Amino acid sequence: MSVPLPLALPSLPAPADPDLPPVHLGPSEQRPPTLSARALAALSVPGTPQPLAFFNATVRAGFPSPAADHSHKRIDLNDHLVRNREATFLFRVRGDSMTGAGIYDGDTLVIDRSLDARHHHIVLAVVNQEFTVKRLYRRGGVVKLLAENPIYPALVFQPDQELSIWGVVTFNLHKLT
User: Residue 60 domain-assigned?
Assistant: First the structure.
């Protein structure tokens, strides 16, 4: 099992392994492109914000508003995506078992290890020494990991089986084009 890269990397050269660890969601014929660790390090070195343009206006899906012509400021995505820098990691999704939750092959998940996993959270778990992303079901002494695609069965855990929840999914970075 490979170790994930932290979202907020220290001010050191990028590690030799340039790939984000994949999250296995089911069979997939091709591996999606990965974000290099050097590119990730350039975007997330603490104290070196990489602000993006943020327009201080809502976006309408209908008639555009002329009042929001040029109102914008710069933002750092770490301020919006990360609650705890030391406990936040990125994982690349591989597979299609969570498409019903809007998580697709090639997406990048933001995982927070400092959060307690609760019933119905989407979690990153370790099952048979491999990472997997599923919805946590924990009610009445029954513990399951549920896929969000009907072709995949639930993973049901017996009281004597160990389930390791590695972290809670807080955001999905989904490329649209």
Answer: no
